[in-house]
Amino acid sequence: MASIQDIMAWRNISASVQKVETGVPNRLPSQFMTVKEDVLGDRTTYLTFYGQRQTARRTEYGSPSRARTLRPAGEQSVTLLHFSEHIKLRQELWLQLREANSLIAQKKAQEEIARAGRDHRQLFDNTRIASIVSMLANGKVWFDSSGNILPSASGAAVTVDYAIPANNRNQLNGIIGTTWSNAAAPIIQNIEDIKIQMMKNTGREPAHAFYGQNIAQYLFTNTTAKTYWQYNSALYGQFQANPGVIPNGTFGIANWHRMGDSFFASNSSSESDTINMQWDGDLLTIIPEVTANTYTLYEGSVPVPTRLGVENSAEAALAAVELVYGIGGYAVLEADPVGIKSVYFDTFLNHWKTPADMFLEKNVSR
User: What is the C-alpha separation between 90 and 93, in angstroms, rounded?
Assistant: First the structure.
């Protein structure tokens, strides 16, 4: 591994090469990042209530009215996740920045500082995406004792459990009778049954389907869907042109999202990443529209110093602190040795509020 001195030393330096692209695959609807709410600190409570779906009772004309008791409102408390990491910009990088006789060295130092800052921030963006994908793939998010997100429950010390009902998992309490790897499976009827069950559970309709790499081929080769494709030639044409991608609108579901390449890299100092795949090839997750009634990205607050030093009063000290919601950061000067400590943090929870309308058809081909 080259040292900072080696990187910044004078010599003919060509443009930098990025060996691996930054970030993780993001096939998520934008609403998962935009339907959000600020939370003071890391905890909040929201009220829950049920819409009225019963009917009024008949009474004889002129008779007294019947007493009706309405369902009471409930409460749901949530605790947000918190992440905080720092990097240090070392003294030798400072020296290159202050090298008055070498504009090249100054420029390369500036570029290295900017690159380090972008990579540091990207960790937190990646974590949000991986957490939402895990929520959709598993109905849970797992973390080990060191705070790393995990692809499965193995080694988990902390679990965020969205309490998806057992009847909404795997074979969906009998909705999936014939596995979809069988070309004769009644896939269209299965989708219709899911729509009906979601309507019964919460009164909502499916709007998004997230699918693994095998699902598109199952739909494309299914014999019971032939008539559907004949009457929906435009969708079938899109399917033929790109068989791995299910066209939006297929089987009456507005949005289909290809999730087979979802992954994140393990937290490691190694130059080569260990890739953790997040989406089973036979997994299909179906949810309604993402709104404030079904989902919220809660962003907690962290106090951040806006200046450092001795203040002449408590009021002045408080004025030197700002509340930052969600992802934020700051840098402080360190004296021994001289350097910069750059801190990034995030306090959030991707929270699915209505477990009964998330359907996880996992292992549908087995």
Answer: 6
First-to-final CA distance of the chain? 46
At residue 285, the 3 state secondary structure works out as: strand
Element (H, E) at 241: helix 233-241
Quote the distance between the C-alpha of residue 47 and its chain's center.
24
pLDDT tens per residue, the chain (366 residues)? Answer: 555 444 444 444 455 566 677 789 999 999 999 999 999 999 999 888 788 888 888 888 989 988 888 877 888 899 999 999 988 876 666 666 666 566 666 677 677 777 777 888 899 999 999 999 999 999 999 999 999 999 999 999 999 999 999 999 999 999 999 999 999 999 999 999 999 999 999 999 999 999 999 999 999 999 999 999 999 999 989 988 998 999 999 999 999 999 999 999 987 666 678 899 999 999 999 999 999 999 999 999 999 888 776 677 777 777 778 899 999 988 887 777 777 888 999 999 999 999 999 999 985 554
Instruction: Annotate 108-123 with b (16+ C-beta within 10 A) or e (fewer).
Output: bbeebbeeebeebbee
